[in-house]
Design a protein that fits this description.
Order of helices and strands: EEHEHEHEEEHEEHEHHEEEEHE
Oligomer: single chain
Strand order of the largest sheet: 7-10-14-4-15
Number of helices: 8
Helix content: 10-25%
Largest sheet: 5 strands, parallel
Radius of gyration: 30 Å
Length: 280
């Protein structure tokens, strides 16, 4: 025999006004149903036991992606014409999936040549149909979600820790906590014959001109560099790759930023829009 509490409320934020103790009986202790109005009370019928419905979820079907052909072609043409593209729209319209899929196919299958069907995707009316990629991991694409607290270029490059040293090949090196974006830029300099992509998801959650000012300046002035640190013998704390004191922005890097247009995001400064190709 179990005990329970019944709590009555007054309808205002479920504030309890009465608490009564009651006895919770088991099925064996309850016995037969009590007659109502002189008629025996029938047990409810379990319809699920009398049907052939399979309640198990079928996960065998792969998840598919549908991209409008005109949008895919517009993004590809934008990448070929400008190194900085902004995909704008309301939340939930597939901007991130489009950017990641196109970037991944670009670096794995090569730059598309056929404008009608870039990578021989299945055509379904006005849409391309393809299986959702199970793994977007590649050292030629950096996917970085932007946070609202990004206020300086350390969120793009990383930072030097002058108090920490790590041992590499028997010698002490200064430690630099590099970002995925900086590691990609260093690789792009080493392999100029390959294409690289930086994808900034929801990039206007913070003010773009604050954290992105270095890259905006480098895109406008090819060949110029920005300073990362002023020390010698500096390596990445994670990969132990040498971090140069200055870096430029290689021409084989493409940037795709996704933005939501609503009251929770920031507007773009004119100097950002002047350097970008905006797709809505």
């Amino acid at each position: 025999m179990n005990h329970a509490w019944i709590v009555e409320t007054d309808g205002k934020k479920d504030k309890p006004i009465v608490a009564q103790k009651c006895i919770q009986l088991t099925d064996d202790e309850m016995g037969d149903p009590i007659p109502l109005n002189g008629r025996p009370q029938e047990q409810p019928e379990n319809h699920l036991e009398n049907t052939n419905i399979d309640t198990k979820q079928d996960n065998s079907e792969e998840e598919l992606l549908f991209f409008k052909k005109s949008e895919v072609r517009a993004l590809i043409n934008s990448i070929k014409s400008k190194p900085f593209i902004i995909l704008a729209g309301i939340s939930g319209t597939g901007k991130t999936q489009l950017a990641r899929t196109v970037a991944h196919k670009w670096v794995t299958d090569g730059e598309p040549i056929n404008p009608v069907n870039p990578w021989e995707w299945i055509v379904d009316g006005d849409y391309y149909t393809l299986d959702k990629l199970s793994n977007y991991s590649t050292d030629q694409v950096s996917f970085t979600p932007v946070r609202p607290d990004w206020t300086d270029n350390k969120k793009i490059w990383g930072y030097l820790n002058p108090l920490e040293e790590i041992e590499v090949d028997g010698s002490k090196k200064k430690s630099f906590y590099a970002t995925d974006i900086l590691r990609l830029v260093i690789r792009a300099e080493q392999y100029p014959d390959k294409d690289y992509f930086i994808i900034l998801d929801e990039m206007n959650l913070a003010r773009v001109e604050y954290y992105f000012s270095d890259i905006l300046s480098l895109m406008e002035s090819p060949g110029e560099t920005v300073s990362l640190h002023s020390e010698e013998n500096v390596v990445d704390a994670k990969s132990q790759v040498i971090i140069p004191s200055e870096i430029n922005f290689p021409s084989n890097i493409k940037i795709i930023g996704t933005v939501n247009v609503d009251e929770t995001t920031h507007s773009f400064a004119p100097k950002v829009l002047d350097r970008a190709f905006v797709l809505e």
